[in-house]
Amino acid sequence: MAEETFRNDWATKDFYKTLGVGQDASAADIKKAYRKLARDNHPDSNPGDDAKHEKFKAVAEAYDVVGDEAKRKKYDEFRSLQARGGFGAGMGGGTGGPGGFGGGGFNLDDLLRERGGAGGGLGDMFGDLFGGGQRTRPQQARPRRGADMESSATIGFSDALDGVTLSLRLPTDTACETCQGTGGKPGTRPHICPQCEGAGFVVSGAGGAFAMQETCPACGGRQLVYDEACPTCHGSGRGTSARSIQARIPAGVKDGAKIRLKGKGSPGENGGPAGDLFVKVKVTPHRVFGRKDDNLTIEVPVSFDEAALGAEVKIPTLGGAPVTLKVPAGTPNGRTFRVRGKGATKRDGSKGDLLATVEVQVPASLDPTAREALEAYRAATAGKPLRAGLFA
Q1: 179 is an annotated ligand-binding site residue
Q2: What does the pLDDT read at residue 98?
Q3: Residues 164-177: pLDDT tens digits?
Q4: What's the rounded Cα separation, in Å, for the pair 174 and 242?
């Protein structure tokens, strides 16, 4: 029943009349008529005029058939058969009888097969006319995932260790405010895109089963082009605005890391999902602490006597109470001590360590008492050359 309704609906339409041309009009005359009607009735040129919007659809529908040589030939054949007897209510059944074509057991499908009008009868003829070939109507746009976006954020050293929530302001695509999304300079008159002839799409590929419909690159799917592009968006029809989002930076993030925030990118099209946002993190250095993987580092200055005789030295921890570092007697410069559990937060929530490196300090100047003591030390150790091994 649905197929019969579909056929009867097409049978009542005179596409030549819709375009205002005769059946014997040339292809050039048909194209010229279509372009004029499409331009005069295009929705972008007639906002809010429902009658012209419907007229535009009808014109596009008519040109889709009679503007294509193969479809036009089949359509003319169909109209010729209709004019000689009419299809009546039985046109969808393919058999004669009351309401059929000519009666007397006449079978329309058989006639069409004999004439070569359609390989599979009336059904195939309508399939070829209004569903096949390269000049098919654009299908409903499929959902498209939004584009991924990139941003950057600078956070403090402590925030990188503990995690922090940031407010980020991001650009987003909107219709250009100057041209309202048309892409044309306000006040200029649009005309039908010559590349897609007002269809909004083009067919690419080798044809046949491998042909694909793509958005027209010349008009961006808007079907119209302008003699002068919009000075603000340069013809793209798109503008930019800003939006704010809350981004959670996890604990333990490292300098230069990229954080992926799912669904925070550009909005999708036609119901598609949003893209992702990738935030590149820059961590400001700390005055005292450094970082090595999941461990914190600190350089601890000690005096010569503390390194030589041993000492207990208090050192700070990040965000916690100080700890006492036991420096054994004879500790060399550059030795590193490990303080467990005082480092950065790991992925599993545990803590790394604090790595304390000893730096023996050499005094820039000495008072008389200190100088006398050091000269006595030098005299006491004169028989133990430190650099003898260099000449072995």
Answers
A1: yes
A2: 39
A3: 999 988 877 666 77
A4: 10
360 in a known ligand binding site: no
Query: 166 forms bridges with which residues in the sheet?
Result: 247
Are 230 and 176 a contacting pair, CB within 8 Å?
Answer: yes
| Structural domains in the chain, sorted by start | 2-130 (1.10.287.110), 149-283 (2.10.230.10), 290-380 (2.60.260.20)
Distance from C-alpha of 258 to C-alpha of 271, rounded to nearest angstrom: 28
Is 142 annotated to bind a ligand? Reply is: no
Any binding-site annotation on 196? Answer: yes
The verdict on whether residue 228 carries a ligand-binding annotation is: no
Q: Tell me if 219 is assigned to a ligand binding site.
A: yes
* Run of H or E residues at 225: strand 224-226
Residue 107 is assigned to a ligand binding site: no
| Separation in Å, CA 132 to CA 86, 122, 311 | 25, 14, 91
| 390 annotated binding-site participant | no
Buried b (16+ CB within 10 A) or exposed e, 193-228: beebbbbbbbeeeeeeeeeebeebeebbbbbbbbee
The DSSP bridge pattern shows strands 336-339 and 190-192 to be unpaired
Res. 92: pLDDT tops 70: no
Residue 259 pLDDT exceeds 50: yes
